[in-house]
Amino acid sequence: MDTARNLIISIAAAAIGLAATVPRSIGGPPPWPFFAFDNAAKDASHPDPTSQIAMLKELGFDGIGSVRPAHVPEALAAAENYGIRVFSIYAVVSIDEGTAVDAVLFEALKQLKGRGASLWLGFTSKKFKPSDPAGDDLALRRLAEIATPAEENGIPIILYPHANFWIERVDDAVRFAEKSGRGDLGVMFNLCHFLRLQDAADLRPVLDRAKSRLRCVSINGADGDCRGGDWKRLIQTLDRGTYDVAQVLRALDEIGYRGPVGFQGYGIGGDARDNLARTMAAWRTINARIAPGDRR
To answer: Could you tell me the fold of the domain covering 96-263+277-287?
Structure first.
C-alpha cells in the first residue's frame, strides 16, 4: 500500500514538473495562475473566506492562498461555489523539542484531499538561529511527522522561507529539501523576504538554484535597494514601489517556471477591494510588458 501511494505521489510530482516547463505561447495570456493571499483580501468588509473569495472571483483572480488550517472548510465551500481555487494553506511549526504540531493542521490535510491545494510550511526555532544546519535532524523529524498524513491525502508540501524563521532563505529551503531525500518536497520564492535579506542582483542566481524544486512564487510591489528595510516598504500593492517586479516574471519565464504566482498583502492596510483591483490591473500591465517578442 505504501509503495503504491508513494508511486502515485512521485508520478504526480513529475507531472507538475513537466507542466512547469511548457513553452510560453507568444501573445497568449499569462502562463501563471494568479491568486491572492488571504491577508491581501481581508479588511472590515471582507472578514471571512466567503466574502474574500467572492471578491477575488469578481476581480479576476484565480483563487486564494495562505488560508489558515482552521478556515479550510469555509474556504473550500466558497471556492467551489464561486468556481475558483484554494491554492494553499499556511502553517508555521517549531522544530524544537518539547513542541507539537497543532492537530488542526492534520485535520485540514484530510479536508483538502483531492482539492488540488498544497501546504506551505514554515519552520521556526528558539534554539537554532536562522539557516543553522545544526537543526536539521530535529527538522527532519518534524517534517516526517507532517509529511506522512500529507502524503496519505495527496497534499504537496512547499517549504516557505521567511525572514527570521529557521528556514529563512530560498537557498536554505533548497538545501534542506535536498537533505530530506524527498523528491516531491517543493520550495517557495517570496519576493518580500528575498528583498529584505538579499541584494536584488541575487534574484536570477537564487531562482536558478531553486528551479527544480520551485513550486510557488509570491510577489508584491516593493521599493528597490531595501535590504533590511521595513515591511511597509517591502510589501505594497503591485502598482506601487520602485522595484521593477517585471524582472521577477521575466526571470520565471526564462527558467521555464509555470506554477502559480500569488500576491502577498501582509500589512498593507486600507481598502482590500481597491488594493486588489489596482494589483490586478498592474499584473496585466506587467505581463503585457514581458510578452515574448516584446522583452525590454
So the answer is: TIM Barrel (3.20.20)
Number of Cβ within a 10 Å radius of residue 80: 13
Residue 122, amino acid: G
Distance CA 153, CA 151 (A): 5
Report the SS3 class of residue 37. strand
CA 65 to chain centre: 8
Q: Read off the pLDDT of residues 50-109 as tens digits, 9 standing for 90 and up.
A: 999 999 999 999 999 999 999 999 999 999 999 999 999 999 999 999 999 999 999 999
pLDDT, position 23 = 43
- Nearest C-alpha neighbor of 120 from the set 210, 17, 190: 190
Contacts of 64 by beta carbon, 8 Å cutoff, 6+ apart:
35, 36, 37, 38, 41, 49, 52, 53, 56, 75, 79, 84, 85, 86, 87
